[in-house]
Amino acid sequence: MNFSFKEIVTASMVLFAVIDILGSIPIILSLRKKVGHIQSEKASIVAAVIMTAFLFVGESILKLIGIDVNSFAVAGAFVIFFLALEMVLGITLFKDDETETASVVPIAFPLIAGAGTLTSILALRAEYHVENIVVAIVVNIIFVYLVLKSSAKIERVLSKNGLSVIRKVFGVILLAIAVKLFATNVNQLLAH
């Protein structure tokens, strides 16, 4: 077992920024208004299962289609880069799908375990030990569950300005992570 506190913290931060559950509070609140109740437990468990499964079989799926992890990590760096730009500049490049019902589908996938999250998991796998990423997934799912459970209270406490500041700060962190991920994996690709 190669548990590393530094790896767990970094992987947790990456996933926290990519999942952006605090930035998704307005979406969660509008879904709650539409359908009345959100199944926080179910959404959290399904998201955790999707993320963990992708951590273990994602690489095999890539091999099946002939893509190595470094190439996927570089592509992932671009996705993370654009997600970060969205957060920092307050523009929308993704998330244009409007959902009709709030069950597992809009919240667990793609809101929590969406393309950005799954890409990040595989990109992290190219750099970190699997057990540290699993811990990071669990930490994030616990946080996601708590946010889903208390989204209305969080909105009252933080207000729109507070949420906006948090989003921008994590956007900048995410930009730096995307650049590092790109640089590390491009070097490994060029070395082949």
TrEMBL record:
Alphabetic keyword roster: Cell membrane, Membrane, Transmembrane, Transmembrane helix
The keyword Transmembrane is annotated on this UniProt entry: yes
Entry-linked Pfam families: MarC
Membrane topology, as annotated: Multi-pass membrane protein
Residues annotated as transmembrane: 12-31, 43-66, 72-94, 101-124, 130-148, 169-190
One CC-aspect GO term: plasma membrane
Cell location: Cell membrane
InterPro entries tied to this protein: Multi_antbiot-R_MarC
UniProt feature coiled coil, ranges: none
Listed PANTHER family: UPF0056 MEMBRANE PROTEIN YHCE
Family: Belongs to the UPF0056 (MarC) family.
Protein name according to UniProt: UPF0056 membrane protein
Organism encoding this protein: Flagellimonas flava
Lineage, top ranks: Bacteria, Pseudomonadati, Bacteroidota, Flavobacteriia, Flavobacteriales
